[in-house]
């Protein structure tokens, strides 16, 4: 790699974005342990399956910027490119995504993400756009 050339990866995953979020953990009161309900497990598996083809050769390390654009299918009076300002919350959507990206080896640890832009849109082509880049 040429010195000072910053690594980046950028891709779009055409799909219906899952709306079940990491905030929907359940607690087993008998064992006092958190667990993922079936809907959340299914959402995580869907994300994982779509991310696998894009895994970088080696994990990113150092300060990183993560840009994620969640594109939901146009509904009602909304139009392509309009910001989606209804549930689910962007931070809830991104939590599971970042955890899965870490487990798959996109980066050493999600704490490396120093800059983050998360957006939600209504879109004619639903899916998730991801750009991960080194900052230094």
UniProtKB/TrEMBL annotation:
Pfam families tied to this protein: RusA
Gene Ontology terms, MF aspect: magnesium ion binding
GO terms classed as biological process: DNA recombination; DNA repair
Cited InterPro entries: Endonuclease_RusA-like (IPR008822), RusA-like_sf (IPR036614)
Name assigned to this protein: RusA family crossover junction endodeoxyribonuclease
